[in-house]
Specification:
927 residues, alpha+beta, ten-stranded mixed β-sheet, disordered N terminus
Length: 927
């Protein structure tokens, strides 16, 4: 039976009371009357747990809420009146309130803004219990506060069955959406909206798997991992059985997610139609989406080559290469580091004598088409724009990084126990991509977050006496090969033999539904595959026609990481920091992993880092020839030699660790650009370093450091003071500029935060200064660098690294209303250049001085001129408005939106730059 009740949200988070989007043509009141069903709840008493060593000092939060399913009636009520199913957004308010509440935080108040993440549920906090499908070997208890499922099994099968059942209760529709995304079939399933077209195209381009490919990845993961592989397969099958049991129960009971009706898969009157059961290959499809989003570092070699060629064209080969390298910042000496003890971990460094490079002839590069035979709305202008964006995202090295971690050794805390505040920044969606759960059963004891549909294990969370989390690392596990064409455009030379490319296709068609009124359309996605991976570009190299392909070490290995997660959930495996690192070594995606228990902290950088041939520069395309392949690469299995665990950045009990997708360690090169002197990791580094120097760190102080950094404007905190130093190097006589300087200086003095004047005001303190900097930054960057670099090179480098990613920016990799900000931008370039012009010391300087040609007075003139233009730019121009915000509404432009992936909508909240799921932990004892 359904367990949800309907309630009214807090006024300031209320969904607008109008039927839009999902319900353009629904007759709401009539449908509600026929669809409301009685709700059954059975209260029960939860047993207290004796395996929890956190002493009530573990907390977590995951907005908007645990409940990501809603019946048709609940969706209609939400869209018409703003009401919410129970536990659909009860974590959104506490999460949002930290932005204005952190200054008065105490340890006793932490769980005002977070959930108590202790194991079990106190007897007076039990909301319900159930035995899924009538099983006697598992129960699911849900707590009153957040509705989190606490799954307890007496058998391993029952435990995993319960995990699957709970996942379907909380995220069935979302799981269904993403298994179709992973198969390139979203538009046929959910509708042909341009956003849906873009989403399926983004993933299909890089992971065009057939059903046989998906199954082979399961088979290989099981075969290569002995008893743990067999256990993973058994766990997955039990998990799937739980999912499918809920599908059957909700279908017969008619309380399945209402989106199935709105998208035409079920009939609300007769209940005709089906919800397809999940199968094991669906888990691989889901895993490929998550891995591609957050754990596949690399790519961008063709764009790197284009900007290098532009630099060499302008300056000559030697000087052009020097200029390019200075902007690339492969190993910048001023970059913030996670492992900061001076230890070096060389990887993907610049070779002394590069071998096998296959740089394209200037102007010859074209992107390989993905979409063919488009009809109707598949060929519309909006569809074309969505395809263009999807292609850019799929082929860029500037991938979604996000996520942060602050971990302090017990040597510097008030209690003597380590403290961690960490979590993944996975964006904001409704329902959320992640879900909370606790799993207790034979060989499993954990609580935390897991991606929906992959929650047979907790992926980020806590065990009995330890917690772990991750940030995206971005080291390069993707290489680009140039294969010489022969016979025609679809044959290539492989080891001297003319070989046919494999054609893989997916044809989708759609028609209007209640949920998505997009008119009918269709297209075919077509990918040409080689032994070196899918074709992404065409070009000529030295006049020879080539195809550029991308080869990812995790390609055809999307299921391999399941073993590492299984280990992290096993209390008999993880008993200390070395065990944690061993578990993380079994995760082939590119992540930074962090650990804390009552005595130790630890860090490990995961990923299958291929051992490249001697002389190969990972930054650029190389020839698809045996001499330049990964060491011992097998194209049939896509396996190779990988760098040993000791070569990955790792550490135990460093004084502190910070990570915000910054550089991991000395000499460890990451694929994205921007690891320079100013990085958002500095916002954490500066605060945590001060705390550690003072000693006596508490959970409150570390949360405050995170929350303070979450409101900081990186440009204003770390670059603006130097810009103002140039402007103020002479008396400012222009009244407009003087007024702007005064406002900007006052903002910097106040802390350079983007924060409300008071809780719920929806107005920023220092609003005018914020507007001025938002308008000024793109103007000053262009005026500072384009004259010296020239238009072609300037444009090429902006394709490697966007110039800005402010909270309201819709042009960065995260888009707008996404929370995560300041990951990618030219702040390090501006910082180094301005310091050089001022005559200050710069380690790892740019190859030249650009602002005003190196003249302080000329640089000042440029800054003054652009600042005056920015000061006169209206708020309505800086913040032009969108479907949610009116033009000029600065707070709204920055605000975070839970992007709808289903029928339930939520109000926007004030901007914070922090993890979506977050833990605060301090263990008091150990087993």
């Amino acid at each position: 039976m359904p367990r949800r009740t309907v309630r009214t949200t807090l006024d300031r988070l209320r969904t607008p009371g109008r039927a839009t989007g999902f319900l353009k043509s629904a007759s709401i009141c009539v449908l509600i009357a026929g669809l409301l069903s009685p709700l059954a709840q059975t209260t029960a008493t939860a047993a207290t747990t004796s395996n929890d060593y956190c002493g009530g000092q573990c907390s977590d939060i995951l907005p908007p809420g645990e409940n990501g399913n809603a019946t048709l009636a609940q969706i209609l009520l939400n869209q018409a009146f703003g009401t919410q199913p129970s536990h659909a957004e009860d974590q959104l308010g506490p999460y949002a309130n930290l932005a204005t509440g952190y200054s008065g935080l105490t340890d006793a108040k932490i769980n005002t803004f977070f959930n108590d993440a202790s194991f079990g549920v106190p007897s007076d906090q039990v909301a319900s219990t159930e035995s899924p499908a009538g099983r006697s070997d598992v129960t699911i208890v849900r707590d009153k506060k957040a509705g989190v499922p606490h799954i307890t099994g007496t058998t391993r099968y029952g435990t995993e069955f319960g995990a699957g059942y709970a996942a379907a209760e909380d995220r069935l529709w979302l799981m269904d959406v993403f298994r179709h995304v992973g198969r390139g079939q979203l538009t046929a399933f959910a509708g042909g909206a341009a956003a849906n077209q873009g989403l399926e195209q983004e993933f299909y381009r890089n992971a065009p798997y057939s059903e046989a490919d998906l199954q082979a990845q399961i088979d290989n993961a099981v075969a290569n991992n002995g008893a743990r592989g067999q256990q993973a397969l058994a766990d997955a099958n039990a998990y799937l059985a739980g999912i499918n049991a809920y599908i059957d129960a909700s279908d017969s009971g008619r309380y399945f997610p209402g989106e199935y009706v709105l998208t035409g898969h079920k009939d609300s009157i007769t209940n005709a139609g089906t919800i397809d059961h999940f199968k094991i290959t669906d888990l691989v499809a889901l895993g490929s989406v998550i891995g591609s989003l957050f754990g596949a570092g690399g790519g961008g070699e063709v764009n790197n080559a284009i900007s290098l060629i532009a630099a060499q064209s302008k300056y000559g080969v030697a000087q052009g290469t020097k200029v390019w390298e200075s902007f690339r910042e492969r190993n910048d000496p001023e970059a913030v580091l996670t492992v900061h003890n001076g230890e070096s971990f060389p990887y993907a460094t610049k070779p002394a004598d590069a071998q096998g490079e296959a740089l394209p002839d200037a102007g010859s590069v074209t992107t390989e088409p993905l979409v063919y035979d488009a009809t109707g709305t598949g060929a519309s202008q909006s569809a074309t724009a969505a395809s263009r964006t999807a292609t850019t995202t799929a082929l860029s090295s500037a991938r979604r990084g996000m996520s942060n971690a602050l971990v302090v050794s017990g040597k510097y805390t008030a209690s003597g126990h380590p403290i961690a505040v960490f979590g993944p920044q996975t964006g904001y969606f409704a329902p959320q991509l992640l879900m909370l759960q606790e799993i207790q059963g034979p060989g499993i004891s954990a609580r935390g977050a897991s991606f929906a549909g992959l929650s047979m294990y907790v992926e980020l969370g806590r065990g009995q006496d330890y917690s772990w989390s991750a940030t995206t690392s971005g080291q390069d596990i993707i290489d680009t090969y140039a294969v010489e064409l022969c016979q025609d455009d679809y044959h290539y030379l492989y080891h001297g033999t003319c070989t046919a490319m494999d054609k893989v296709e997916q044809t989708n068609s759609w028609k209007p539904t209640t949920a998505d009124g997009t008119a009918a359309g269709s297209y075919t996605m077509r990918v040409w595959k080689t032994k070196y991976g899918p074709v992404e570009y065409r070009a000529t190299v030295g006049g020879k026609k080539v195809a550029y392909t991308t080869l990812r070490s995790s390609y055809m290995h999307e299921a391999d990481s399941i073993i590492g997660f299984q280990m992290l959930n096993d209390p008999d495996y993880v008993k200390g920091p070395k065990d944690f690192q061993s578990a993380a070594q079994h995760i082939n995606y590119t992540f930074n992993w962090f650990y804390a228990d009552s005595s130790h902290t630890a860090y490990y950088n995961s990923g299958d880092n291929p051992v490249r041939a001697s002389g190969v520069d990972a930054e650029f395309p190389v020839w698809g020839q045996a001499a330049y392949e990964w060491k011992n690469w097998n194209p049939t299995t896509n396996t190779a030699d990988y760098t040993p665990a000791s070569a990955h950045p790792n550490s135990v009990d460093q004084d502190y660790y910070v990570s915000w997708n910054n550089k991991q360690a000395l000499d460890y090169t990451t694929a994205p650009w921007g690891d320079g002197s100013v990085h958002r990791g500095n916002l954490l580094e500066d605060r945590v370093k001060k705390l550690v120097a003072a000693g006596g760190v508490t959970r409150t102080k570390l949360v405050q450091a995170m929350a303070d950094a979450a409101l900081a404007d990186l440009r204003a905190e770390d670059v603006l003071p130097k810009l103002l130093k140039v402007v103020n190097s002479s008396t400012v006589t222009d009244s407009t500029v003087a007024d702007a300087v005064s406002k900007l200086q006052a903002w910097v003095s106040a802390g350079a935060k983007r924060t409300e004047t008071s809780a719920g005001s929806k107005k920023y303190a220092d609003a005018d200064a914020i507007r001025i900097l938002d308008a000024w930054w793109p103007l000053l960057v262009k005026a500072e660098f384009q004259p010296g670099l020239g238009s072609d090179l300037y444009t090429a480098i902006t394709n490697n690294l966007p110039i800005d990613e402010s909270p309201s920016a819709a042009h960065g990799p995260t888009g707008s209303h996404a929370g995560s900000s300041f990951q990618y931008g030219w702040w390090s370039y501006v910082d180094k250049d301005i310091r050089a012009v001022l005559g200050e010391s710069v380690q790892g300087p740019l190859a030249d001085k650009y602002c005003g040609g190196g003249s302080l007075s000329s640089c000042r003139d440029i800054l003054m001129s652009t600042l005056k233009t920015a000061a006169g730019t209206s708020a309505s121009t800086v913040y032009p408005g969108d479907s949610l915000c009116s033009a000029g509404d600065q707070w709204c432009a920055d605000s975070i939106v839970q992007r709808t992936l289903g029928g339930i909508k939520h109000g926007n909240i004030s901007w914070q730059n922090r993890p979506t799921f977050q833990q605060v932990v301090e263990y008091t004892s150990h087993r």
